[in-house]
Amino acid sequence: MRYRAALVGVAMVMAAATEASASMRISGDAGGRIGTYVQTYSAIRDSGERVVIDGACLSACTLVLGIVPRSRICVTSRAALGFHAAWVPGPHGQPVRSEAGTQALWELYPQHVRRWITARGGLTSKMMILRGRELTAMYPTCRATESASAAPLTISGQGAAAQARKRHSGHGEVRKTARTRVEQAREAGRHRHNNP
User: Fold this and answer.
1) Domain segments of the chain: what residues?
2) Partners of 148 in the beta sheet?
3) Domain 22-188, what architecture?
4) Which residue in 140, 149, 155, 179 has the most C-beta neighbors within 10 A?
């Protein structure tokens, strides 16, 4: 009897450890190139990992909602998702709306997110933030253990998808920082999507 109880206990600990290591945490992500996010989130979707949104997820970062299944995403009280139209740099570096990029975003977002965006005037150059009760009405709140044990995930550069695949295969962990990009976006006073 004790042997069986010990075995059940070990199995529960192993299951909890596996679940905890199979979560990625998004926090402080200001976005970037659409293609990079599509690649990374596709790799996470294919790996079966869960995503914990635990802070700012702005611009192209929000594509997680359309690529990773809803059942594998949870949010914390700190989660804030920022949506706006895609843009490309104009001749003098100024943002110019990208119709193709904006259409790509729109097609990737799930229907419930599209309804929320539409109710606020659609994707424009002005960022709209989804958080709090509106967000938790769409996505479940993370369990405390899940949030605390999730590995950080921030995306920068073309190697992000490969690193996500590598982490899933057990050979590493995705650990990149978007702190510089968040600070630059704050200084510029805007957050952006780039066309892929």
Assistant:
1) 22-188
2) none
3) Alpha-Beta Complex (3.90)
4) 155
